[in-house]
Amino acid sequence: MQRNTWLASAAVLGIIGATGGMLAGGFANAQDAPESLLPPGFDDPAPAPTPTAAPAALPTAAPATAPTGAPPANPGVPTAPVPGVLPPVPTLSGEDLQGLPTLEELEELTPDELDDRLGLKPKFDIPPAARRSLAQVGVLSPEEGGLPTGSLGKQPENLVRAVLAGTQKPMVSRWGHILVRRALASRLAAPEGMSPVEFAALRAGVLNRMGEFTVARAIVQDVDTGNWSKALTSQALTAYVGANDISGACPAVRLQGSERDDPQWVMMQAICNAYAGEGALAASQLDRGIENGIAPEIDLLLAQRYAGAAGRGRRAVEIEWDSVEDINPWRFALANAVGETVPQALLNDVMDGPYAAYYAQSASTAPMLSLASREPWVQQAASGGIFSARAMVDFYSQVYADNAIGGDAGDKAAALRQAYVGANAQERINSMQQIWGEGGDYAGFVTTAFAAARIAPSEDFAGYSGDLITSMLSAGLDRDAAAWRGMIAEGSLGWALIAVGTAGDSRASADALETFTGNDDSTDQRASGFLVAGLAGLDRLSAADLEAMQGELDIDLSRATRWTQMIGKAADADNRTLVTLLAGLGMQGTDWSQMTPLHLYHITSALRRVGLEAEARMIAAEAVARA
Asked: I want to staple 109 with a disulfide (CB 3.0 to 4.6 A). Which of 113, 211, 369, 417 is the partner?
């Protein structure tokens, strides 16, 4: 049970209405008989007319009328309508006519725009009985491994908003990425004072920036489109484009109509109109967009190709890349969706640019791309935490089954097969080394995790223990890694990974730490700093050894910052969700050189204190292995 009492207090509001005064006046005066509340002619039927030989003559004198502006003789009784006389027609002033479209404008409006102008577009596209509550938004319940539903309910809204809005970069840690994704996907209640829709938009934004487009899409889909705000709509479009699911956004686009007028929205409207059976309208919208130059021509042509795939209104659209100088998420997703090959030169620029992670994350899960073209993207996604070790085995199994795939992807698939079926342990290790590469690619370690766990611990293979244990711990196989304890020398990389990555409360010896530090060839002895920080955060280092190692490595784990104070207080309150989000805030970056021992110490310490020790151990071991 979470104790969500830190920095917030519950407020109970009660509103009591008094209606006695309204009832008291109803019995002030008695009346002789009940008075009908219906208009004349609705209570008693009119008496049947008596048949006569001829109709009675009409009066010749006009009835007297009250002067203009004079009140009726009996204001309490409504005036009966005069038979044969129509009621007066209300007149419209010039102000009433302002804003109404002219006939020419009406002819140019689309059905959605016409509904917007006339106020006919419904707010919701689902019946009231099918609408979902906003009390909890998410896809992972506590029973399925999600974090506690009400864990952020009592937390200050400004703090939660600042943490989520401040997480602008992906995580340097693969295991940190996995943990933060789990928290953001959990079925959570919004903090008091924060709109659940805003809370969903903030969470989807972090997931999009992490490259978890499919999870972000699931979060926004858990909110009825009639409740979407501008911020949630923006994050939803980012998620749909990143997940290569362009038409998936159509329910919201058609429901919101002309809420936006930016080029991407206009193109989305045309595409959605095409898939709603309005092909002619979609074609005219995109043609008008090309004439007006609302976006680069390549974007509009790709939108035409995508829209033309719907219905019978197909037409040839020639795509020319000669004048295209760069790639963007919109044209990348549309090109993938319509099967248009992006020139390799543009892809090379993307892979070497600052947004390489985005395209890797988007393309790695795109089912319309070939296995061979996806392979480099899949490697990057696995290193970042999007692909699991099991998913990597599945992927390379498909590559191996396709005899037409050669090159680096085919070689890795064949090597992975040999890592499982090799004649002996040495042959299997050699195959794994081929996948790891000379530089020790972390995605390769993820790929071989289960194969590494099949190597029986032996002193004969102690020289490979560092890489084998790194591979096992990349998939969380800590029990298999722990089996190597006693087989390897103290102070080695394998010893360090077991010391921080496996369960147990044994303390590391000072002599072993000295040996590891002496053999550490990482930049600025970063691996040794991470090892000391991890051991201290897991409470596996004595106070004397900690003080000595801090002096030797010139690090200070006692330095306080605003972030360290926040994550410490969240751990004091035993709030797993808030600790996880704050840990993600402190793990932002694209390289482990951006992580400090101070941050790692407070992350592992806070996670351990709130019952997430397994995750803390995996993060610490990964830091040592990737330093």
From this structure: 113
Least Cα distance to 139 among 219, 49, 259, 62 occurs for 219
> Sign of torsion, CA 605 607 608 610?
positive
Q: Which 8-state DSSP code applies to residue 329?
A: H
Query: Two tokens at 25?
Result: 């006046």
CB contact set of 489 (below 8 Å; sequence gap of 6+): 462, 495
What single string gives the DSSP state of each residue in 8-28? ------------HHHHHGGGS
**Residues near 594 by beta carbon (within 8 Å), at least 6 away in sequence:** 172, 588
Beta-carbon neighbour count of residue 251 at 10 Å? 16
Residue 169 burial (CB < 10 Å; 0-12/13-18/19+)? middle
Residue 41 neighbours by CB under 8 Å, 6+ apart: 80
Q: Could you give the angle at the alpha carbon of 173 between the alpha carbons of 172 and 176, nearest 5°?
A: 120
Residue 588: beta bridge partners? 171
Q: pLDDT class for 174, splitting at 50, 70, 90?
A: very high
Q: Which residue has the tokens 């006339």?
A: 118
Task: Please report the sign of the dihedral spanned by the C-alpha atoms of residue 136, residue 140, residue 141, residue 147.
Answer: negative
CA separation for the pair 327, 315 (Å, rounded): 25
Are 601 and 417 a contacting pair, CB within 8 Å? no
Phi, psi of 473 (to 5 degrees): -75, -20
Classify 37 as helix, strand or coil: coil
Length of the chain: 627
Q: What is the pLDDT of residue 197?
A: 97
Asked whether the beta carbons of 432 and 420 are under 8 A apart, the reply is no
> If DSSP codes are grouped into helix, strand and coil, which group holds residue 171?
strand
Instruction: Report the first-to-last Cα separation within the chain, whole angstroms.
Output: 36
CA-based nearest residue to 227, from 292, 321, 133, 301: 133
3-class DSSP state of 73: coil
Q: What is the DSSP letter of 590?
A: S
> Which amino acid is it at 167?
T
Rounded to whole angstroms, how far apart are CA atoms 19 and 17?
7
pTM to 2 decimal places: 0.81
pLDDT in tens, 299-323: 999 999 999 888 665 667 889 999 9
Contact 353, 329 (CB under 8 A): no
263: pLDDT strictly greater than 80: yes
CA distance 429 to 109: 68
Model confidence pLDDT, tens digit, residues 336-393? 999 999 999 999 888 888 888 999 999 999 999 999 999 999 999 999 999 999 999 9
